[in-house]
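call fold(seq) -> tokens
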Amino acid sequence: MSPTATKTARPAFRCSDCGWTTAKWVGRCGECQAWGTVEEGVGASAGARAPAALAPSAPARPISDVDVEAARARSTGVGELDRVLGGGIVPGAVVLLAGEPGVGKSTLLLDVAAKAAAVSAGPADAGPGGPVLYVTGEESAGQVRLRAERIGALTPHLLLAAETDLATLLGHVDNTGPSLLVVDSVQTIADSTVDGAAGGTSQVRAVASALIHVAKTRGIPVLLVGHVTKDGSIAGPRVLEHLVDVVCQFEGDRHSRLRMVRAVKNRYGPTDEVGCFDLSDTGITGLADPSGLFLSGQRSAVPGTCVTVTLEGRRPMPTEIQALVAPSPLGSPRRTTSGLDSSRVSMTLAVLQSRLGVSLANADVYVSTVGGARAVEPAVDLAVALAVLSSGEGKAIDQGVVAMGEVGLTGEVRSTVGVQRRLAEAARLGFTHALVPAHGAADLKPVPGLIVRPVSNLHEAALAAWRVGEPVSRAEPGGVSRPTGREV
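ret:
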């Protein structure tokens, strides 16, 4: 070969999820360890040179001279979604909303599109002009229209298009000039210039890149619906989550009306906020105060219940824990949980049996939350232990008591995060006594109407739960003694 011959690009293989490259095909990515994601591509030529410099379209400016008004977040009209996004949606931002089928993604975004269309139809100073374009690739236009009629989302400034071709979608954007673009879903749109079926890694990457380019160049906020896999992760290449500005997870049990939206990535706001929604036959509505969904509403104290306050992001959520201890006819008693971490519940039962002498070897134990709530953080351990004790002893805990704290293997009650916010929520709901870990209790600020009872172990917590008006008796150092009462 002549020394002046042009060097051709050599073949290479690239992971569609993380971008890792290799000279030969392998079944498993060496970087992200994903199976079946390595695809054949073209690597860089051995004699590749750096691209020539081009004149910039606009000179660089001091950062203090950059106009920030165009990047201010604008309300979507849905308060709970604004909470998650950090005050609203930023012009030019691309938001990916992912969730399981039937959880309510399309219903929520159709409601957001209708409210945004109503704002765009108002005065000129109320928001950006232009209609809202809703592109559906999964349903027909008639099906979406029926849903819009059911949830009250019919407005003339909401434009609907049923398309699955990317070029046609971009044509609709050129013709309508929307102030907001909703695509349901990104896995159903295909680019005719890219090989592969819609929903494939190459197609999803190409479609997302084109929509992001439109959003950034025209300043149009884009809301994308994304599918999830069996394990709950977002379907498609991992690079999709890196390309978009905001990634939101839509969660909820299909047997419950409660839906939660949490941001797992947010370039414009926090990622520890949670939005709560109520999904019903008439649509989806935001829940500014979802406390009543997780409390049973019992007017009289019942054995086997204890209320705790969990944290969903930065939002305190009161949750009622219910326990039932019953004699078991089986050689291996049942341990059944619902809405709780089964491993932590098993650990708490072992601590009760070992440190307090509670006999549970011949008893079935059922522990559940009320209203389909999920309480998996360690701070619910104390409430679980007290609920089991209450059911076994047959004595009800006072309705004004709320308990929070992690239970260690030695029986001690460990500190937890966000105790001050939990106490403020408990006082707002009318609770009068709170059992909190003794460690760090001295730094807590007084909460009007709430008596804080620091406890250092399960013995003190059990005594305080049934004797809210008496001082707590401290256990002897080096161990935890069993509270008075009959055997379980």
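The chain has three domains: 11-42, 72-288, 293-466.
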